[in-house]
Amino acid sequence: MQRRVIFNNKLLPYLLLAPQLAVTLVFFFWPAGQAVYMSVLQQDAFGQSVTFVGLDNFKEVLSDPDYRATLWRTIIFSSAVAIFALVPALLFAVMAERVVRGATFYRTVLVLPYAIAPAVAGVLWLFMFSPSIGIVAYGLKKLGVDWNPKLDGDDAMILVIIAAAWKQISYNFLFFLAGLQSIPKALLEAASIDGAGEWRKFRTIIFPLLSPTTFFLLVVNIVYAFFDTYGIIDTVTSGGPAKATEILVYKVYYDGVIALNLGSSAAQSVILMAIVIVLTAIQFRYVEKKVHY
Amino acid sequence: MISFKKALTALAVGSALATTGAVAQNKPIEIQMWMGLTGLGGETLTKYGEEFNKMQNEYKVTVSFKGQYPEQRAAAVAAFRAGNPPHIMQMFDAGSGDMMGARNAIVPVSDVFKRASIAFDPKDFIAPARGYYGVKDGSLLSMPFNVSTSVLFYNKDAFKKAGLDPNKPPATWPDLITAAKKIRSTNAANCGFTTTWLAWIQLEQFGARHNLSLGTQANGRGGVNSELNFASNPAFVKQVQTLVDMQKDKSFDYKGRSNDASASFQNGECAMITQSSGAMGGYVRDAKFDWGVAPLPYWPDAKGAPYATTVGGASLWVFNAPNRSAAEFRGVAKFLDYLRSTPVMIDWAKTTGFLPATNAAFDYLTREGYYAQNPRAAVAIGTLASGKQGEHTGGYRFGRWTEIRDFYHEEVEKALQGKQTAKEAIENAQKRGNAALRAFEKTAVASN
Questions:
Q1: What is the CA radius of gyration of chain B?
Q2: What pLDDT, on a 0 to 100 scale, did the predictor assign at position A22?
Q3: Segments making up each domain of chain A, as ranges
Q4: Under an 8 A CB cutoff, do B413 and A240 touch?
Q5: 3-class DSSP state for residue A139?
Q6: Mean pLDDT across the stretch A265-281?
Q7: What is the pLDDT of residues A186-215, one digit of tens each?
Q8: For an interface test with B, which of A48, A123, A126, A157 has the most B Cβ atoms less than 10 Å from its Cβ?
Q9: DSSP-assigned beta bridge partners for residue B152
Q10: CB-based contact, B411 to chain A, within 8 Å
Q11: Residue B302 pLDDT more than 60?
Q12: In this structure, what DSSP letter does residue B60 have?
């Protein structure tokens, strides 16, 4: 009697893959192909005059000092979001793991923000920090802080970083918690017997064993900061003041949808796609080698 | 085989019957209209669509909100490219240049009425709106609907607290600066003055008020080869410098782009605000203090000032599409005809605080004594229609103006942050604006 099930049908695997492939084709390859196609054209908003311009759109984008400033701003923004989303998440996870009473309650509350849509999260923070009506802004004013994200670019950047990181903490928290729970208790007990303190246990056992999770989250968080923060930025600052919070993905949106400069917008989205592909490849190629599985 | 043929015949007869049935039922023709208005204005416009549907059963108008003007415009452009744009689209003033640059995408409203054999005289519309949305031969490309202009709102309670005369609003910029400083020094409010719609008010309306040129070719109305030239006029630099200087002691406080600053007037934080006259309805309902309206301030040292302010708000554009039937265009004309009718225009002006777009409605309101009883509503129509007209008060027409407004916003924000001088701000805004105009010219010329 054969114990393993063998499918002789050559077609079946492809059929089973088909739905996923179809989704990928329709929602990724098709729009990506459109972007590449439109990036070599110059056209008016209504698509009535379309001319092939080769790589002109790319040349224009890459030689634009505004674009380079946006690139630099995106790097700062993404690193800050990743750090401020990962560190508190790890802290919360370690804390939540130690709680015995009401653990489910704490965990649920910590996960809640993840269920909130980016635009809604943006509006929440917008109201709290709004110079005219916000409760936090009111408190800051009482403390003598001249808080005005409508005018001060740094204030605006701080605000979108907080909002973007806050939303991602829950997601990171879940993964860290799962990671912590899979660390063998025997190792920690052995360390305790050897007289290791909490910090030493964390530094030498927990953190290294969490590294696959941390690495995975780093990749996910950077991709999140690059793309998914669009909704937050749009509702909180719309990229302003004076472009202080305009990151690459927001510029693609602004130039394409608001300014209706489709060629430039398409070229930027192709560049953005390339950046993320390269970034992810580098992370897997080099960073992953340093990770203990 | 026979049975198959029979079945086929039955099917054919059946579907033929179904078709005649549909014709006999006289299914109303669908007319889609997209708007960019929220709140009171949006609710009122939707109501007009429903009333029109009740009046007749040939057409069914659906008025839908597709986001604020810029988003709605993007949605309409995408729908046009997909071959199915809305029949009517409400487009704000700044988008007019883009629409005019895409002449094959639209049908001028004068033509829409002509095709439907409905009498339509552009002269029925108030002169400033007619000038703004019309072309040289006098015909109208789009139909003016919600017309507004820029005015100054001021908090009378804060004026009293500061020891200022609440019945004497500042008429000029020097007056306004003095009042704002007094409000700050007496701590009557946290900020003396703020502005909404930075580019629209401090660049476009400011230009009209002092009869200053924004660009060559009659402010872009003469052709798409127009070049911006406002930076060569020191008055625009002086205005930005005024804002920068006032920002230091919060006698002016910048509260963001578009309508963001409105909340800080409404909650009493800022004692004065330059704002669209269309905001009046909201303040009547929500402001919990005594307030007044005054014409937009001007610089008395400017030659001939004050001139009239110019038109803002939005107009209604009719899209063209390959699959549009003559019957649909007739329905569009009938609905537009309803919207411009005097009772609707009067209701619109009274409910929302926008200005009446037609002379008939304006005359009626004047005769009825509406403006005598509502002096606050009279201010806007006064500066727009009765003000002194000049070479540069009739509005402008530039492509990509939505984007160019943002260049102005960004550069002035940088000046307010102290990162550049007022002169650099104006020069950079013009330089970037001209680059956008040249790119627009390339595609606009190619499409003609």
A1: 24
A2: 94
A3: 60-290
A4: yes
A5: helix
A6: 89
A7: 888 898 898 888 888 888 888 888 888 888
A8: A48
A9: B274, B294
A10: yes
A11: yes
A12: E
Which strand (E) or helix (H) includes residue B34? strand B29-35
| In CATH, A60-290 is 1.10.3720.10 | yes
Residue of A nearest to B70 (CA): A258
**Separation CA A221–CA A169 (nearest Å):** 10
Asked if pLDDT for residue B194 goes beyond 80, the answer is yes
Contact (CB, 8 A) for A164 and A223: no
pLDDT at B22 over 50: no
Instruction: Give the model confidence (pLDDT) of A86-113 as tens digits.
Output: 999 999 998 888 877 887 888 888 888 8
DSSP strand E in chain A: where?
Answer: 41-43, 50-52
Residue B147 — left, alpha, or beta (φ > 0 → left; ψ -120 to 50 → alpha)? beta
Strands A50-52 and A41-43: antiparallel
**What confidence score (pLDDT) does residue B11 get?**
47
Please check whether residue A51 touches B, CB under 8 A: yes
Q: Give contacts of B107 with chain A, Cβ < 8 Å.
A: none
Q: What angle do CA B424, A161, A111 make, to 5 degrees?
A: 160
Residues A146-160 pLDDT 10s: 788 888 888 899 999
Residue of A nearest to B407 (CA): A242
pTM for this one? 0.83
| Interchain CB contact of A152 with B (< 8 Å) | yes
Closest alpha carbon within chain B to A131: B255
Average pLDDT, chain A: 86
Rounded (5°) CA angle B264-B91-B233: 65
Across B310-317, average pLDDT: 91
Please indicate whether, in this complex, the C-beta atoms of B77 and A152 are within 8 angstroms of each other. no
| Cβ separation B77–A46 shorter than 8 A | yes
Q: Identify the CA nearest to A159 among candidates A125, A136, A127.
A: A125
Which chain B residues contact residue A151 at CB under 8 A?
Answer: 247, 254, 413, 416-417
A153 and B CB contact within 8 Å: yes
CB-based contact, A43 to chain B, within 8 Å: yes
In the stretch 55-114 of chain A, residues with CB closer than 8 A to chain B read none
| Residue B17 scores a pLDDT above 50 | no
Whether omega for the bond prior to residue B108 falls within 30 degrees of 0, making it cis, is no
Q: Which of B102, B264, B402 is nearest residue A48 as measured by Cβ atoms?
A: B102
Question: Please, what's the b/e burial string for B192-201 (b: 16 or more CB within 10 A of its CB; e: otherwise)?
Answer: bbbbbbbbbb
Q: Where are the alpha helices (DSSP H) in B89-247?
A: 96-101, 109-115, 127-133, 156-161, 173-185, 198-199, 206-209, 216-219, 234-247
* Pairing relationship of beta strands B312-319 and B143-148 according to DSSP bridges: antiparallel
The CA–CA distances, whole Å, from B247 to A141, B190, B301, B339 equal: 17, 12, 23, 43
Q: Which residue of B has its CA nearest to A41?
A: B443
Q: Which of B77, B267, B419 sits opposite A132 (nearest CB)?
A: B267
| Number of Cβ pairs < 8 A linking chain A and chain B | 91
Distance CA B41, CA B64 (A): 13
Is the ipTM beyond the 0.90 threshold? no
Domains of chain B: 23-148+312-368 (3.40.190.10), 150-309+398-447 (3.40.190.10)
